[in-house]
UniProtKB/TrEMBL annotation:
Family matches, as CDD domains: HemeO
Top-level class of the enzyme under EC nomenclature: oxidoreductase
Species of provenance: Penaeus vannamei (Whiteleg shrimp)
Ranges annotated as spanning the membrane: 190-207
UniProt keyword Disulfide bond, yes or no: no
Residues annotated as binding heme b: Y92
InterPro entries xref list: Haem_Oase, Haem_Oase-like, Haem_Oase-like_multi-hlx
Family according to the record: Belongs to the heme oxygenase family.
BP term (GO), one: heme oxidation
Name of this protein: Heme oxygenase
Enzyme Commission code: 1.14.14.18
Reactions mediated catalytically: heme b + 3 reduced [NADPH--hemoprotein reductase] + 3 O2 = biliverdin IXalpha + CO + Fe(2+) + 3 oxidized [NADPH--hemoprotein reductase] + 3 H2O + H(+)
Keywords associated with the record: Heme, Iron, Membrane, Metal-binding, Transmembrane, Transmembrane helix
Length: 213
C-alpha cells in the first residue's frame, strides 16, 4: 500500500486470475455455477481501471503474464476441463477474500492519504475495492449460493472442492512471491488482499462442514 509499484504488480498478477474466473462464469452461465455470479461482484473492469491509473492507459501493449501466473491459469484450465464445478473453490475464496480484505486495505489507503473514510468516496487507484452495494449482502448471497449448489453435488465432487480450496492458497502464494521488490511483509499484505481471512483453519473447517454436512 505504501509503494505504488508493488501494489500495481499485485493488481497485475491477480487481474489475470479474476479475468479468467469471470470469463468462466460467462462460459458456464447455463450451469448451477451461475448462482455464484452475484450482481455487483465482478471486478475485472475495476482491475483494469486501477492498472490504467498506475501503469498508463496502454499498459496492455506488449504485456505477457509472468510464468507463475501462467501456471496458475493452466491449472484453472485443467480443472475446468475435468469438471467445471471445481472452479467454485477459486470463485468463492478469491471473491470472499477480496470483499473482506479489500475493504480493510481501502480504509488503510484512505488513512495514508489523510482523508476521512466513506464507502461511497472514490479513492484513486483503489477501484477494485469500491463496492457499489452492500459488502455484507454480497458475502451472504455468495455463501447461500454455495450452500445451494453443494446440495446438488455428489460426495466425490465435494471432496475435490475441499482439495482445491487448499490449492487456492498454494497458487496464490506462488504468484505473490513473484512480485519484484515485495519483501516478506509486503508480500503477506498483498496475499491478504486476495484471500484475507480465508487462510485460517477455522474457515477451512467451516467450508468442509458446509459441503459435507
Amino acid at each position: 500500500m505504501s509503494e505504488d509499484r508493488v501494489w500495481a504488480e499485485g493488481l497485475l498478477i491477480f487481474y489475470e486470475i479474476f479475468k479468467y474466473l469471470e470469463e468462466a462464469l460467462d462460459r458456464l452461465s447455463h450451469t448451477l455455477i451461475s448462482d455464484l455470479d452475484i450482481p455487483g461482484m465482478r471486478r475485472k473492469e475495476a482491475f483494469e481501471k486501477d492498472l490504467a491509473f498506475y501503469l498508463g492507459s496502454n499498459w496492455k501493449d506488449g504485456y505477457k503474464p509472468r510464468e507463475s501466473v501462467c501456471q496458475y491459469l493452466k491449472h484453472l484450465e485443467k480443472i475446468e476441463q475435468e469438471n467445471p464445478y471445481y472452479l467454485m473453490s477459486y470463485i468463492y475464496h478469491l471473491y470472499m477474500g477480496l470483499l473482506s480484505g479489500g475493504q480493510i486495505l481501502r480504509r488503510k489507503k484512505v488513512l495514508l492519504q489523510k482523508f476521512s473514510f466513506s464507502r461511497k468516496d472514490s479513492v484513486e487507484g483503489m477501484a477494485v475495492t469500491e463496492i457499489d452495494t452492500s459488502v455484507s449482502r454480497l458475502k451472504r448471497e455468495m455463501t447461500e449460493a454455495m450452500n445451494r449448489i453443494a446440495e446438488e453435488l455428489d460426495e466425490e465432487t465435494k471432496q475435490r472442492l475441499l482439495d482445491e480450496s487448499k490449492m487456492v492458497f498454494i497458487l496464490n502464494n506462488s504468484i505473490v512471491h513473484s512480485v519484484e521488490g515485495a519483501g516478506s511483509v509486503v508480500a503477506m499484505k498483498i496475499l491478504k488482499f486476495a484471500s484475507y481471512g480465508v487462510l485460517s483453519a477455522l474457515l477451512f473447517v467451516y467450508i468442509k462442514r458446509m459441503l459435507v454436512g
